[in-house]
Amino acid sequence: MEKMPVSYKELGLVNSRDLFAKAVKGGYAIPAYNFNNLEQLQAIIMACAETASPVILQVSKGARSYANATLLKHLARGAVEFAAELGTPVPVVLHLDHGDSFELCCDCIASGFSSVMIDGSHLPYEENVALTRKVVDYAHQFEVTVEGELGVLAGIEDEVSSAHHTYTQPEEVEDFVSKTGVDSLAISIGTSHGAFKFKPGEDPKIRLDILAEIERRIPGFPIVLHGASSVPQDLVETINAHGGKLKDAIGISEDQLRLAAGSAVCKINIDSDGRLAMTAAIRKVLDEKPEEFDPRKYLGPARDALKKLYIHKIMNVLGSNGKA
Ligand code: G3H
Ligand code: 13P
Ligand code: ZN
Q1: How do residues 236-268 score in pLDDT, each as one tens digit?
Q2: What is the 199 CA–ligand 1 centroid distance (Å)?
Q3: Is 294 labeled as catalytic in the residue annotation?
Q4: Which residue's CA is the closest to the ligand 2 atom numbered 1?
Q5: Which has more confidence, 312 or 164?
Q6: Within 6 Å (CB) of ligand 1, which residues are found?
Q7: At a CB cut-off of 8 Å and minimum separation 6, what does 6 contact?
Q8: Which of 25-29, 149-153, 161-165, 192-196 comes out lowest in average pLDDT?
Q9: For a surface tag, which of 30, 62, 165, 228 has the fewest beta carbons within 10 Å of its beta carbon?
Q10: At the top level of CATH, which class does the domain 8-318 belong to?
């Protein structure tokens, strides 16, 4: 069956432009929570409605094929209605995380995404500029906002992996932003994807000095932090106490994220912490009640744990509560 393109506006979604402008001015960051399934989405919306926080629903290429693009479109529309039903309509952005091709970005735009990331960070600089420009020119026709990336995070980004950080070079940012026309810029300052961000004994610091220099060069321009999970140790302990094997899982300190959120960082990406919260809750139920086999009995607690985590981030790290 031929799929009809749908605009995000028909789904009740918004792009990120105004949200970012307000967040930069107000010294807070918008949560960009990744999701793959219904319980994660429910938890995100419940947390954001309860705290009156705007939200970026973030979907990776892998998540999109896992959840199905058609279902996602309806879930996104449902998310907007669900928030309103809970009593607090919140601005909802549907964002492609780590788009790796022009075609994928176009396909997402046609299926209701209001924002896309084109991640050309692993390409030579001029190729990154050209690919990002191409996506921006296309996306802006539909008022879809675009995130680009300069610098490479250590760890795994969809199919791309890198053992070391390549920090963003501040001297490149003005040129990149002006040549590409991007709406926001993801930077590499020592955060990384996944639950193993630092080695034991390593100083778990991010390079806030590079962030400050980037801000000095492009004042007020919306900056995005990927790989910003904090890997709460109580969750790691719960997982390990119930049969899990996560050794030396270390994340970014919430103090450093708070500092970043107070600057031009206006979008903070969190996926791994949600995975940990969900896994800890499910392991606990299945370990303590081996007779349980109703998925609602372990996915329900997982959803509660996610909601609690998301509210904590909004209130104590990002500062986006009350900004809807
Ligand atoms: O940055 C990557 C996100 O955590 C998404 O991960 O590609 O496994 O869905 P994924
Ligand atoms: P974490 O793995 O630190 O949660 O980062 C998620 C992310 O950057 C998604 O793009
Ligand atoms: Zn990322």
Answers
A1: 999 999 999 999 999 999 999 999 999 999 999
A2: 21
A3: no
A4: 227
A5: 312
A6: 34, 60, 62-63, 97-98, 157-158, 193, 271
A7: 73, 110, 111, 112
A8: 161-165
A9: 62
A10: alpha beta
Retrieve residue 84's tokens.
């309103």
Q: Which ligand is nearest to the CA of 268?
A: 2
Amino acid 158: pLDDT: 47
CA distance 95 to 219: 24
Nearest CA, atom 9, ligand 2? 269
Catalytic pick from 18, 97, 107, 203? Answer: 97
- C-beta of residue 272 within 8 angstroms of C-beta of residue 193: yes
Residue of 35, 36, 60, 224 with the most ligand 1 atoms within 8 Å of its CB, for mutation: 60
Q: Under 8 Å CB-to-CB from 252, ≥6 apart: which residues?
A: 191, 197, 204, 206, 227, 228, 229, 230, 231
How does DSSP assign 153-210, residue by residue?
A: -BEEETTEEESS-B---HHHHHHHHHHH--SEEEE-SS-BSSSB-S-TTS-----HHH
Torsion region of 243: left, alpha or beta (phi above 0 gives left; psi -120 to 50 gives alpha): left
Q: How far apart are CA 26 and CA 292, in angstroms?
A: 47
Kindly tell me if the per-residue pLDDT of 315 is higher than 60: yes
Distance from C-alpha of 322 to C-alpha of 49, rounded to nearest angstrom: 10
Tokens of residue 155, six digits:
């760890």
Residues 52-89 have pLDDT tens digits of 999 999 999 999 999 999 999 999 999 999 999 999 99
241: left (phi over 0), alpha (psi -120 to 50) or beta: alpha
Any idea how long the chain is? 324
Cα(226) to centroid(ligand 3), Å = 4
- Given a cut of 80, whether residue 278 has pLDDT beyond it is yes
Tokens coding 166: 């390549």
Cβ of 51 closer than 6 Å to ligand 2, yes or no, is no
| Amino acid symbol at 267 | K
CA atoms of 133 and 240, how far apart (whole Å): 45
Rounded to 5 degrees, what angle do the CA atoms 189, 194, 196 make? 85
